[in-house]
Specification:
With 396 residues, the protein is α/β, with parallel strands linked by helices. The protein is built from 15 helices and 15 strands. The chain binds pyridoxal-5'-phosphate. The site of pyridoxal-5'-phosphate has 13 residues, from helix 5.
C-alpha cells in the first residue's frame, strides 16, 4: 500500500471502533436451513432464500440441462450477440406470473434499478422517494438528472405534499419510488394509498418488490397482487436472487415500458446478461411458484411459529408484516456481541445489522425465516436466542 491510500487504514479502524465493521463469513457448502461455516454446521437465519430454492434439486437439474445445451456464457450483450431463447422464455414466464404485459431481465435487482430510473426521468423531472428505500434505488436516483425529494418512511401525507410541491414547481414528469417490503423492518409500503396519491398528481409509480415476490400476494405474486393494484403501478422491479433462489433482476410493466428499456436501459445495452444455467434455474423457480402455493404457505406458517416463540420469550420484534423477523436490540456493540455468541456458542448464524444499514441506536439481529426450516430448526433457533438474550440481559 502506498502512502496515498493510508487514509483507508484510518477509516477501517474507525469502523471497527464504532462496531460497524462487517465481518464476512465463508460458507463451505450450499445455501439451506443449515450451513457449513468454518467447518462447523450452523443453523442459517441469514439468507434471503425464503423458499429454500437456492439448492432445490429441480433448479439444479434445470441449470445442468441448460449448461449442456447452451454452454456457460451469453457471448456479449443481448443487442449485439442476439438474445438467447432462454432469456425471452424467462421474461414471458415472469410476465404471466406477475400479471403484466411484459418483463425485461437484468443482471441483478440492483442493476435493474440503475437501468430503469434514469430511463424514465431526467432534467426537468422530479423523483419522490421513501427515505428508507434500498441502496440500489438511491444509486439509480443519483444516476438520473431529475430533481429529488425524499419523504419520511411510509408517510403518504408527506408524499402528497411533495407531489403538490413538484407540480407547483412545474415538474414535467414525476416518478414516485418505494420498496414494496422494507427489508430491515419487514414492513409493507402502503402501496394502495401511494398509488391513489400519485394518481391525483399524474405521477408515475415504481415499486421495488425484491423482498415481496415469492412472499406476499397470491402464491407469492408480489405486492401489486397483494393490494390488487394490477394495471395501476407503472414499474415493478424484481430480483431472482431472493425467494426465486438464483440470481438476476427484472423490470415488469407495460409493453411500452419494456420496449423502451430494450432501447434505453444502459445495463441492458452495455453489460452482458446472466448465464444460461442461471436463467434456466430462474425459469424453473417461476414454474414451481406458478404450479403450487405450498412453499409460500410453509414460509408464512414457519414465520408465525417462530415469531410466537420469540414473543413469548420477551423479545421486541419491531413492526414486521412479513416473515422478516427483526430482533430489536438497540446498541451496535450489543447486537454484534449477541450475533457472535449465537454463532460461537449456539451454532446459530444470524447477522447483526447496524448503522448505516439502519439508523444509529436501532441495531438488531435480523432473522430470515425460510420454508426450508423444519419445526425443530425454529425451536432450536428460538431457544438459542432466549439463552443468549438472558446472558446479555435483553430478556428476563
Ligand atoms: C436485494 C435488493 C435488491 C438487489 O437485488 P439483487 O438481485 O441482489 O441485486 C434491490 N432492491 C431491493 C429492495 C432489495 O432488497
Amino acid at each position: 500500500m502506498t502512502d496515498k491510500t493510508a487514509f483507508i487504514r484510518d477509516e477501517v479502524q474507525a469502523l471497527k471502533d464504532q462496531g460497524l465493521y462487517n465481518t464476512i463469513r465463508t460458507i463451505e457448502g450450499p445455501q439451506g436451513a443449515h450451513l457449513t461455516v468454518d467447518g462447523r454446521e450452523v443453523l442459517n437465519f441469514c439468507s434471503n432464500n425464503y423458499l429454500g430454492l437456492a439448492n432445490d434439486a429441480r433448479l439444479v437439474e434445470a441449470a445442468k440441462g441448460a449448461l449442456a445445451r447452451y454452454g456457460v456464457g451469453p457471448g456479449a450483450v443481448r443487442t449485439i450477440a442476439g438474445t438467447m431463447i432462454l432469456h425471452t422464455e424467462l421474461e414471458s414466464a415472469l410476465a404471466r406470473f406477475k400479471g403484466v404485459d411484459a418483463t425485461i431481465s437484468f443482471q441483478s435487482g440492483f442493476v435493474a434499478n440503475l437501468a430503469v430510473i434514469p430511463a424514465l426521468v431526467g432534467a426537468g423531472d422530479v423523483i419522490i422517494s421513501d427515505e428508507l428505500n434500498h441502496a440500489s434505488i438511491v444509486d439509480g436516483v443519483r444516476l438520473a438528472k431529475a430533481a429529488r425529494k425524499i419523504y419520511p418512511h411510509n408517510d403518504v401525507a408527506a408524499l402528497r405534499e411533495r407531489l403538490a410541491e413538484a407540480r407547483a414547481e412545474g415538474a414535467n414528469r414525476i416518478l414516485t419510488i418505494t420498496d414494496g417490503v422494507f427489508s430491515m423492518d419487514g414492513d409493507l409500503a402502503p402501496l394502495d394509498r401511494i398509488v391513489d396519491a400519485a394518481d391525483e398528481f399524474d405521477a408515475m409509480v415504481m415499486v421495488d418488490d425484491a423482498h415481496g415476490e415469492g412472499v406476499v400476494g397470491r402464491g407469492g405474486r408480489g405486492i401489486v397482487d397483494h393490494f390488487g393494484l394490477h394495471g395501476r403501478v407503472d414499474v415493478e422491479v424484481g430480483t431472482m436472487s431472493k425467494a426465486f433462489g438464483a440470481v438476476g433482476g427484472y423490470v415488469a410493466g407495460s409493453n411500452e415500458l419494456i420496449e423502451w428499456l430494450r432501447q434505453r436501459g444502459r445495463p441492458f445495452l452495455f453489460s452482458s446478461a446472466v448465464t444460461p444455467p442461471d436463467v434456466a434455474a430462474c425459469l424453473a423457480a417461476v414454474g414451481i411458484l406458478d404450479a403450487s402455493t405450498e412453499l409460500v404457505d410453509r414460509l408464512w406458517s414457519n414465520a408465525a411459529v417462530f415469531k410466537a416463540m420469540m414473543t413469548s420469550y420477551g423479545f421486541d420484534l419491531g413492526s414486521s408484516d412479513t416473515p422478516i423477523t427483526p430482533v430489536m436490540l438497540g446498541e451496535e456493540h450489543l447486537a454484534r456481541e449477541f450475533s457472535r455468541r449465537l454463532l460461537e456458542d449456539r451454532a446459530v448464524f444470524a447477522q447483526a445489522i447496524s448503522f448505516p444499514t439502519v439508523p444509529r441506536g436501532k441495531a438488531r439481529i435480523r432473522v430470515m425465516i425460510s420454508a426450508a426450516h423444519s419445526e425443530r430448526d425454529l425451536e432450536d433457533g428460538a431457544t438459542a436466542f432466549a439463552a443468549v438474550g438472558r446472558e446479555l440481559g435483553v430478556v428476563p
